[in-house]
Amino acid sequence: MRSLLHKAATRGHANHGWLESYHSFSFANYFNPERMQFGALRVLNDDTVSAGMGFGTHPHKNMEIISIPLEGDLEHKDSMGNTAVIRSGDIQVLSAGTGITHSEYNKNRDQQVKFLQIWVLPNKQNVPPRYDQMRLDIKDRKNKLQQVLSPSLDDAGVWIHQTAWFHMAQLDAGKSVQYELKAPTANGVYAFVLDGEVQINEQSLVTRDGYGVWEVEHLSINATKDTELLLLEVPMSIEH
């Protein structure tokens, strides 16, 4: 087993007034050559957007972009004509492919928005752009792992152009689960603690810590306090 540990306080940080963002990997003005990506996982941003503010229209190309709202409402508009609002309990995916523009705004005047912005490098280039979102049943992650993303349209959660699987869990203190990698010879898992305290393969983690593990077949996950957790299984080498 190989691993890396990203403590919460070591992440990149940017405060633009209307936007406060913590970067697990190099992004915008934050550059760390030791934190360029974890396999196909290129970006994991922990964003807070002030009331009434947001990201103006901007382009993307050949990237799988996943948004997971944690608090508040975020409105999405894109060049394909989609207008939608995502809320806590939703997951959104944007396959940028040949190119797309979009905007994201907090339309509420009295509440901030918190969400995770995740970029995964695709295994297919120049695909037709695609947008999707899904309402998840949060009860399905109570003391177990809920799959929220996969490579297949026919599998649970949203899908992307990559052999990746995302899972979320809400674990009571003292509860344990085991995660079996879907592709253990090719993939690794980046665990991100949304809240709480947990041990993964005996590594202790707290809120907003990140822990990457590869060359392993499964993860033993033990919550030492009530914990919310996101697991991102991605290929460790990039193929187009």
3D architecture notes:
The chain is mainly β. The protein has one domain: Jelly Rolls. Helix content is 0%, strand content 55%. The protein contains no helices and 22 strands. Strand 2 and strand 3 form a beta hairpin. It is globular, with a radius of gyration of 17 Å. It starts with a strand and ends in a 5-residue tail after the last strand. The relative contact order is 0.19.
Give helix and strand order, one letter per element, not per position.
EEEEEEEEEEEEEEEEEEEEEE
Helical stretch tally: 0
- Structural class by helix and strand composition: mainly beta
Instruction: Give me the CATH fold name.
Output: Jelly Rolls
CATH fourth-tier homologous superfamily: Jelly Rolls
* Average of the residue pLDDT scores: 94
Q: Termini, distance in Å?
A: 26 Å
- What share of residues is helical? under 10%
Largest sheet: 7 strands, mixed
The percent range for strand residues is: over 45%
Q: Please report the total strand number as a whole number.
A: 22
| Spatial extent as radius of gyration | 17 Å
Q: Do you know the CATH architecture?
A: Sandwich
Tally of discrete structural domains: 1
Given as residue ranges, the uncertain stretches (5+ residues, pLDDT < 50) are: none
User: For the record, what CATH class applies?
Assistant: Mainly Beta
Shape from CA axes?
globular
Strand order of the largest sheet: 1-20-17-22-15-13-14
